[in-house]
Amino acid sequence: MMGDNMFGNTMWAGHWLWMLVIAIVVVIPAWRICQRAGYPGWLGILILVPVANLVLLYFLAFADWPADKTGDRNG
Fold first, then answer.
1. Low-confidence residues of the chain, pLDDT below 70?
2. Domain that holds residue 62
């Protein structure tokens, strides 16, 4: 079916670049939100995992933030 197409079985290099850009655009704000909430910033990487991203959002929305208790809101 795709035998005459030279890109038939390979991934276009621009696709990987686009995925990296989107990941950076999404992870950086999630990282900062986790830090400002008083949690480790690396939790923001969970935003890239399909079901874990929803768990992270609900956790941040309904958990008691350690930053509220210490008064440190700048991460």
1. 1-11, 71-75
2. 13-69
